[in-house]
Amino acid sequence: MASETAYVIDFDGTVTTRDITTELGLFFGGKKFIEIDQSYQAKKIPIKSWLQAAVALLPVDLEKLKNRAFEWAEIRPGFNTFLQKARAANNPVIIASDGLGFYIEPILDQFGLLGEVDQIYRNDTVINDQGLLEILNPHAHPTCVVCGNCKARIVVQQKAAGRPVIYIGDGSNDRFGASWADRIFAREDLALTCERHNLAYSPWWDFYDIINIEEPRLTDRDSGSLCSPLGAGVKS
Ligand SMILES: [Mg+2]
């Protein structure tokens, strides 16, 4: 019997049509956020630092931030059908997000999809004891400084459980998790990054492109991967 296939899926710009963390940064941070984002795009700072810098520009009002997130929340076409097919095939669906995180469950709940997702690994944005907005990274690698959420470890853990992994994403930072997956669906910056690193991928536009595909076999991706989530983290 073929083993179940695990789907590891980015949230912002993948499940949703817009990157809500970026939208919040732009809306409340304006020019300062653009400078932070340019440093990130130029690889001068990792995403973990990008998140910390972005969160410092936001109002200390989670309700206000959540309401903004709801305004921009639109689910990419086909996601509901994709979830139903995955469930029928017993294939777990895992969301792995390296954004602000706090709006993911509320948005999925708003669209009636929260109960259809098996697991969510995300950062959290909280108001700390000093009354400041703070980003928490409960799923970070213990020493690697690059990612807030170690998506590569999530992929590796699924593979260790015997499940081939299909990775679906859109951002350049998805490259670490994607590089461990048995099949990659990439759009936008992730597609460009896959080209740059010689990672085979399938382009996709919406979730209808990912329905009725031939599921991959479990493969050893260690040699081609871009980091070592169970080791020291990012490869130099
Ligand atoms: Mg994304």
Description of the molecule:
With 236 residues, this protein is an alpha/beta fold. The chain has a domain of 161 residues: 3-Layer(aba) Sandwich (Rossmann fold). Helix content is 35%, strand content 14%. It contains eight helices and ten strands. The chain has a six-stranded parallel beta sheet. The protein has a two-stranded antiparallel ribbon with strand order 4-5. Helix 1 crosses helix 2 and helix 1 crosses helix 3. The radius of gyration is 17 Å and the shape is globular. The chain starts with 5 loop residues before the first strand and ends with a strand. The chain binds magnesium ion (MG). The site of magnesium ion has 8 residues, from loops.
List keywords for this structure.
236 residues; alpha/beta; globular; binds magnesium ion; Rossmann fold; 6-stranded parallel beta sheet
Q: Numbering strands along the chain, what is their spatial order in the largest sheet?
A: 3-2-1-6-7-8
Provide the β-strand percentage band. 5-15%
CATH architecture classification of the domain at 6-16 and 75-125 and 136-234: 3-Layer(aba) Sandwich
CATH homologous superfamily title of the domain at 6-16 and 75-125 and 136-234 = HAD superfamily/HAD-like
Task: Estimate the mean pLDDT confidence.
Answer: 94
Helix content: 25-40%
What is the N-to-C order of secondary-structure elements (H for helix, E for strand)? EHHHHEHEEEHEHEHEEE
User: How many helices?
Assistant: 8
Q: State the major sheet.
A: 6 strands, parallel
Report how far apart the termini are: 40 Å
Quick one: overall form?
globular
Rg measurement, Å: 17 Å
The CATH class name of the domain at 6-16 and 75-125 and 136-234 reads Alpha Beta
